[in-house]
Design a protein that fits this description.
Length: 371
C-alpha cells in the first residue's frame, strides 16, 4: 500500500509557527512595544495555536538553542568583579528570596480560601521561577490538581513577561533605555558579526558542552545556566568573550517566545473563568509585592529601580536577562538574584514543601481524642 503524504507535516507546522512569530514580532516592533521579538512571537503563537488546532509545532531543541545564546549573554556579565559583588550580595539575596517565598505562601492561602482549591495545589501554583520543578513535584504529591498547577504557573509566567517590560519602560521606573550607573552595558547594538571572530568558536564550544553536560546531570535549567557558568569560567581564565549582534539576540528571543506561546492551552482547562481569573489576580498581587520588595532593595543597595525590579521579578531568568540587556540594567546583579532564587527553588523549596505536606497530612490523619 502506498503511504499517503501527511497533509500538514511537522516542517509545515514549524514554518507556520515561525511565520506567525515573525509577523507578531514585526507588529510589536512597529507599535514600539518593549522587547518586541520576545513578546510579539509569544502572543502571536498563543493566539494562532489556540485558533487553529494542531497547526503549530516548535521543537524544544530550538528553544534550547535560544537559551544557550541568552545564557552566553548572561555569562558575559559574570566577570571577576561581578562575581565578587554577587558574593557580597548573598545575605540580601537570601533575605529577598525568603520574603518573596513568604508572599507566595500568603497569596496561596488567600487563593485557597476564596476558590476552595486545596492549599497544596494553590501553593505549588504560586511558587515563582520553577515551572518544571513545581509540575514534577505536583505529579509526585498526592491530592494535587496538576492541571491547575500547570496553568497557574504558565499564566503567572506570561503575566510577568508581559507586565514587567511595560512597567520597566514606564515613567514609574525611569526613561527608555536608561543605563544603570553602576555598570557599563555588556552587550551593545553596535556589536557586529565580524567582531565575533575568532573567540566566539571557543565560547560556542564551551556553551554547547556545558549545556549538554548540565542537562545530562539534570542541572536546573541546564541550557541557560550551563552556558552562563561556562562563559564566566572562560572569561575568568583570561579569554575575552565578544558581544553578540542585536540581530542574534532577536533570533534567540523568537526561539524562546514561540515556545512560551505554545505552553498555554486554555482548551484543556476546566472551570476556565475561575482558574484564569485567580491566576491573573494572584500574579498581579505577586508582581505588586515584588515591586514593593524592589523598593526595599534600592534602600539597602545602590542600584536603579529597574535593576531592583528585574532582580526580584518572579519570572524566568532568561526573560529577565533579556529585558535587563534591553535597558542596559546591571545584568550581573539581575542574573545573580535570579540565579540564587532558581537554585533556592530547585534545591531548597521541594524538600521544604514535602516536609510541610507530610506534616499537615499527618495532622489530618491523627484521630481525635474521645472526651
Amino acid at each position: 500500500m502506498v503511504r499517503q503524504p501527511v497533509p500538514f507535516n511537522v516542517l509545515g507546522k514549524m514554518l507556520t509557527a515561525l511565520i506567525s512569530a515573525l509577523l507578531g514580532g514585526y507588529v510589536f516592533k512597529l507599535l514600539h512595544i518593549p522587547i518586541p521579538w520576545l513578546l510579539g512571537p509569544m502572543i502571536a503563537v498563543l493566539i494562532g495555536s489556540n485558533v487553529t488546532k494542531e497547526r503549530y509545532v516548535w521543537p524544544t531543541s530550538i528553544r534550547n538553542i535560544g537559551l544557550i545564546i541568552v545564557g552566553y549573554t548572561i555569562g558575559l556579565s559574570m566577570t571577576g568583579k561581578a562575581l565578587h559583588e554577587m558574593g557580597v550580595q548573598l545575605p540580601y539575596m537570601l533575605l529577598m528570596t525568603l520574603l518573596l517565598m513568604l508572599l507566595c505562601a500568603l497569596l496561596a492561602y488567600i487563593v485557597s480560601k476564596v476558590s476552595g482549591i486545596n492549599y497544596k495545589t494553590a501553593l505549588l501554583g504560586s511558587i515563582p521561577g520553577g515551572l518544571t520543578q513545581m509540575v514534577i513535584l505536583a505529579e509526585e504529591t498526592e491530592g494535587i490538581n496538576l492541571t491547575i498547577v500547570t496553568v497557574t504557573q504558565v499564566i503567572r509566567l506570561m503575566m510577568i513577561v508581559i507586565s514587567v517590560p511595560l512597567l520597566v519602560f514606564s515613567p514609574l521606573l525611569g526613561n527608555h533605555k536608561a543605563v544603570d550607573s553602576t555598570i557599563q552595558p555588556i552587550v551593545t547594538a553596535s556589536a557586529s558579526w565580524g567582531q565575533l571572530m575568532p573567540n566566539i568558536f571557543v565560547f560556542a564550544a564551551v556553551c554547547i558542552v556545558c549545556a549538554l553536560v548540565g542537562n545530562k546531570i539534570k542541572f536546573p535549567t541546564a541550557y541557560l545556566l550551563g552556558p552562563a557558568f561556562g562563559t564566566a569560567i572562560v572569561q575568568v581564565l583570561g579569554l575575552h568573550g565578544p558581544a553578540l549582534p542585536s540581530s542574534l539576540i532577536n533570533v534567540a528571543q523568537i526561539m524562546i517566545g514561540i515556545n512560551v506561546g505554545l505552553m498555554l492551552k486554555p482548551s484543556q482547562l476546566t472551570n476556565k473563568l475561575q482558574t484564569i481569573s485567580l491566576a491573573i489576580g494572584s500574579s498581579l498581587l505577586l508582581l505588586i509585592g515584588a515591586y514593593g520588595l524592589s523598593m526595599i532593595f534600592i534602600k539597602l543597595q545602590s542600584v536603579s529601580k529597574s535593576t531592583a525590579l528585574l532582580s526580584l521579578a518572579p519570572g524566568g531568568m532568561d526573560q529577565m536577562g533579556i529585558i535587563a540587556h534591553e535597558i542596559n540594567a546591571n545584568l550581573s546583579i539581575v542574573a545573580g538574584y535570579q540565579l540564587f532564587r532558581t537554585f533556592f527553588i530547585f534545591f531548597a523549596v521541594p524538600p521544604m514543601l514535602r516536609l510541610l505536606f507530610k506534616y499537615t497530612g499527618a495532622r489530618k490523619t491523627v484521630p481525635k481524642r474521645q472526651s
